[in-house]
């Protein structure tokens, strides 16, 4: 049985019509403890899979690393239980030589839930980490017609969501060609984004200039922060952004697009990046006066 999905016995009821018992697939949610150099940094609830991406992206979001060269290796820790078994739920990251260890103040006293990645933070000021990848001068100009295709393409590529209906997704698109570079799914929207950013870390692609981060839910402050830390100039969502997300986007120069559905969208910041291509004017017909 895959650790991404789990088969459970359920009772399906249709009011005044039927009642049946059958097996159903659910998205798995398990804790992942992220350690750096053997020291515990955080515990997050996630869908197993792409855990190294998740850890790498998390470290970018926290300002621990900023480039692929900062991340040396990661391994699952054996002996994670009293019986000495490897649960594949404890991942220890090794940073590259010369990269400072995380500030002890980053250590979370309690775990991060799948719904809230910032629950261990003491204040909003504490999460306004300064990004090493400024985006305000990113020269990406995006065709809204191309952008409008991203939600359907995101949905079509969600293999696990198709089976369970219970996962968020995040995808990274090339803003100029529209090519989907990577897609990740997770029970936590922040984890899905971290997995996307972590993929970019391993591929040596940071900063992610000229790209669009497309998410399946809303655009929260935290997702905007993660986009900023990875150097992503455009964050698009099928639902609404929060007011704090828009405030941060304006502050750092990110374009936020919300309610991206069908052929319509709402641009909340830096709208000059979303521009329809110039159309060649039709030649005017010569008019001839009647005699």
TrEMBL record:
Residues annotated as the enzyme's active site: 116
UniProt superkingdom: Bacteria
InterPro entries xref list: Cytidine_deaminase-like, FdhD
Subcellular localization(s) per the UniProt record: Cytoplasm
Chief subcellular location: cytoplasm
Pfam families: FdhD-NarQ (PF02634)
Keyword field: Cytoplasm, Molybdenum cofactor biosynthesis
Classification via HAMAP family: FdhD (MF_00187)
Role summary: Required for formate dehydrogenase (FDH) activity. Acts as a sulfur carrier protein that transfers sulfur from IscS to the molybdenum cofactor prior to its insertion into FDH.
Family the UniProt entry places it in: Belongs to the FdhD family.
Protein name: Sulfur carrier protein FdhD
Protein species of origin: Curtobacterium citri
């Amino acid at each position: 049985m895959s650790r991404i999905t789990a088969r459970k016995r359920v009772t399906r009821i249709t009011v005044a019509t039927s009642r049946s018992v059958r097996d159903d697939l659910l998205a798995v949610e398990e804790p992942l403890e992220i350690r750096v150099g053997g020291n515990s940094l955080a515990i997050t609830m996630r869908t197993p899979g792409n855990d190294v991406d998740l850890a790498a992206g998390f470290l970018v979001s926290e300002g621990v690393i900023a480039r692929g060269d900062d991340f040396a290796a990661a391994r699952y820790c054996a002996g994670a239980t009293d019986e000495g078994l490897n649960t594949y739920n404890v991942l220890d990251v090794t940073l590259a030589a010369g990269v400072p260890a995380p500030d002890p103040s980053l250590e979370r006293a309690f775990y991060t839930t799948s719904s809230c990645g910032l629950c261990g933070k003491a204040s909003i000021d504490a999460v306004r980490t300064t990004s090493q990848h400024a985006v305000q001068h990113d020269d990406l100009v995006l065709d809204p017609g191309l952008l409008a295709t991203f939600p359907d393409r995101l949905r079509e590529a969600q293999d696990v969501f198709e089976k369970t209906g219970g996962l968020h997704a995040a995808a990274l698109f090339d803003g100029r060609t529209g090519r989907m570079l990577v897609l990740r799914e997770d029970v936590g929207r922040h984890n899905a984004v971290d997995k996307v950013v972590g993929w970019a870390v391993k591929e040596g692609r940071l900063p992610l200039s000229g790209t669009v981060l497309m998410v399946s839910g809303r655009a929260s402050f935290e997702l905007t922060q993660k986009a900023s830390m990875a150097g992503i100039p455009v964050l698009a969502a099928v639902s609404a952004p929060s007011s704090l997300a828009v405030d941060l986007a304006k502050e750092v120069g990110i374009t936020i697009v919300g309610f991206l559905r069908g052929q319509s969208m709402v641009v909340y910041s830096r709208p000059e990046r979303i521009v329809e291509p110039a159309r060649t004017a039709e030649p005017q017909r010569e008019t001839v006066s009647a005699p």
